[in-house]
Amino acid sequence: MNLRRHTLSVALLAVLIAPAAHAEVALDVIADSEVSFEGLVQADFNKFDNDFANLNGDALDGSDADQELRRAEIVLKGKGPGNFEWVLGYDAKADKYLDVNAKYKLGGNGNHFVQLGQFKQPNSLEELSSTKNNDFISKALVTNTFGVARRLGAAYRFGDVNWGVTTSYFGREMTRNLAHGSGFGARGNWAPINETGNVLHFGLSYVDYDTDADTLRLRARPNADLAGQRIVDTGNMTNADRQATIGGEAMWISGPFKLQTEYMQASVDRYNNGNPRQSNDFDASSGYVSGLWNITGESWGYKDGVPTTPLPNNPGSGMWQLGLRYDTIDLNDGNAIPGATPTAASLVNGVLGGEMDTWTVGVNWYWRSNFKFMLNYVKVDSSRYFIRTPAAPYAALPANNNMLVNREVDDNPSILEARVQFYW
Fold first, then answer.
1. In the CATH scheme, what is the homologous superfamily, with its name and number, of domain 42-69+127-147+161-170+185-423?
2. What is the mean pLDDT of residues 4-21?
3. Please, are residues 136 and 325 in contact by the beta-carbon 8 Å criterion?
């Protein structure tokens, strides 16, 4: 659309004219509000070594790789008048709104405020961290599958530099036809050690929301944002009332090293669907452990319960990072019935969405103050039970396969990923 192209042009122009500094570009003081401008442009490349499913987004082009402009974000921010702050963000690539909200700091304390509008909900350490400083190209399986991102709502936070509690009530996403379902959430964070270059963090979160339209589908790509298929997938779970997710998180920063982990357990309440073989409820889980090393010696900061990424000590040579992450997800809650009549209802008791483990090795280069280059290698180990039914013989199988029937299938691809990023 024209708006998207115009917005992207403005974003790219800002990259060219922005000064070589990581901070936002100050614009003006309007109605006693100090207005500034930020932006983020990311371009990704994925090369797939397929195993079972064809992960190429355009399976007909004969290629084993995909490339895409991933994000083109522009953000206006304002401070003032008084204790008010506001933000207006838009992603021209995805054609959707980002943070669009106003915040009022109570008593002048930055960790004590009320917030109205669209914002990231209080769950997931990785989700709440800045996208431009992601440790790996794709967010973790648990974040992408169970994390609740931006929604319209209201939030209240109380705390100080070492701890905080945030509660929220939220509804749909601001952009039409995206995430729906009203609910509530809460997150508590505590840093018993919070010193320069030495931080120990713990967090606990809980979100509970209406699944909307009584249908829910949980699925995950193999840690590759451009993959054309999700290789673990519950399919549409009907008669789903609400989803509740509890999450735990921990992080340790020691000089140039950072160790981080998160785990989430999700429960879906399903009302009686008239099928005595089918369990009313569904439980799933996911988590990750990651380690990062700043080879050039920089350490992280800590603010509002999330880490902050530093500038390079030597901008000319930049900051180099090495990272390793292990991800796991389990979307199985049921079992196959041996010898049953080959229909979807009789073959499975419960839901068998599959299991997946991935290892990601990555290297990041923050060059000067506005450029970042990332290279990741992902190795996947997954299995999923596929069903062939008389009504739809291969409905559950990937498009490139026409021979496998009612049995568990292993899918173990590997993926090479690259990202180029400009931000200001």
1. Porin (2.40.160.10)
2. 46
3. yes
